[in-house]
Design goal:
With 148 residues, the chain is mainly beta. The chain has 1 helix and 7 strands; from the N terminus they run H-E-E-E-E-E-E-E.
Length: 148
């Protein structure tokens, strides 16, 4: 499974560029203080909000080919510093059953910056059916790690 995810991260990367515009972020929350002299601590924004699927479906694509199931997405780094972002996409059939996964990445994405792209699953990533069986996609995992 780890090899599939690693391969997916390498092969399911975007074919589009990035934009400098920031997407809508979530408001940071504050932890309640136990005394009036305690400092207010801001929680880190959830990395789940960093990935948004903007469009998905079968289309003829110059990169992914004719009748490909293409997922268009935006990754926005809502963290405080530059980060490498990874997201796992899960493909589902008409009954909502799991067909397979692929991964997308956004490397060294500055704080507040966004990257748009598209990805498509490979045949080897769909273990429980065929690409033609895909009816929907969802983000199941997002990891944001500080860039070095």
């Amino acid at each position: 499974m780890a090899a599939t995810l690693a391969m997916a991260a390498l092969t399911g990367c975007s074919s589009s560029g990035s934009s400098g515009a920031a997407g809508k972020g979530s408001s940071p929350s504050t932890a309640p203080s136990t005394s009036s002299s305690a400092p207010t601590v801001q929680a880190a924004p959830s990395s789940k909000a960093d990935v948004r699927i903007t469009k998905a479906g079968v289309e003829d694509d110059p990169v992914w080919g004719p009748h490909a199931y293409v997922v268009h997405y935006t990754v926005t780094n809502h963290g405080a510093g530059a980060a490498d972002c990874f997201a796992q996409l899960e493909f589902l059939d008409a009954d909502g059953d799991h067909l397979g996964n692929t991964g997308i990445t956004a490397d060294t994405l500055g704080a507040g910056k966004s990257k748009t792209g598209d990805a498509a699953p490979l045949d080897v990533e769909i273990q429980n059916g065929k690409i033609a069986d895909i009816r929907s996609v969802r983000v199941t995992e997002v990891d944001r790690t500080p860039s070095s």
